[in-house]
UniProtKB/TrEMBL annotation:
It comes from the Bacteria. The keyword RNA-binding does not apply. Coiled coil: none annotated. It is found in: Cell membrane. Keywords: Cell membrane, Glycosyltransferase, Membrane, Transferase. Gene3D superfamilies: Spore Coat Polysaccharide Biosynthesis Protein SpsA, Chain A (3.90.550.10). Its EC number is 2.4.-.-. One of its GO terms (molecular function) is glycosyltransferase activity. It comes from Tabrizicola soli. This is Glycosyltransferase.
Amino acid sequence: MTPPVPALTVLIAARNEGAWIGPCLAALAGQAEPATGPVEVIVVANGCTDDTAGRARSSAPAFAARGWRLVVLELEQGGKLGALAAGETAASGGALAYLDADVTCDQGLLAALAEALDTPVPRYATGRLAIAPAKSRFTRAYARIWARLPFVRSGAVGAGLFALNRPGRSRWGDWPEIISDDTFARLQFRPDERHEVPVSYHWPMVEGFARLVRVRRRQDAGVAQIADRFPRLLANEGKAPVTPALLARLALSDPLGLAAYLAVHVAVRLQRHSGDWTRGR
């Protein structure tokens, strides 16, 4: 008997994520099955020097018990875009979800994504972003302000998790050599084509001032790179600007949080980006 086609393939590009991959996969294995079919999960361990692949394989029994497929691929070469391409080649799902290995999903998220993407028209979907509790006081303060920015409040942010149906993925061919794959994917879709389902996923921010500066610098460089190489995509941005009035409200309601956010913002602009890959952890 031919197994049913998965409703959704979850692709996880993981490089030295041994400390995170277990909880990430456990949250996926405990998800409700979408009404349109089973789930397939593909972990692409790329350039790993730790036990990411082994820890991922140890989750196989939990997926097998559900009748779901867990595949672990190992690539000697590091690089997220190559890992995504390898995962897409192996994927058989009717829709594709791109998940960071340090993200955990609330119950019902995969079913909600599969339902949102079950349409013949191109569509992008994500969950409701929840910032995981930080350990450092500085990151907690920074995160309070970041969560109140118009870009985040508008929804369908897609940081750490975004999903596409097959017609949506057909909007471009191979992944280009870019820094920010999530921004590139999101901007392939107009705001009315991007959907946030009402189920949360938990995305951790990096800890401490120095790491936040490195990651923020890389994020800004990724956005600038897309603006330079793919300027037509900027028409799909659709986010409101940060206004002086908003900054005044933030200063009154959370002066310490705004000070942390502005400290990172200023530091990013005072330091030149090297162009190299920056790990936040």
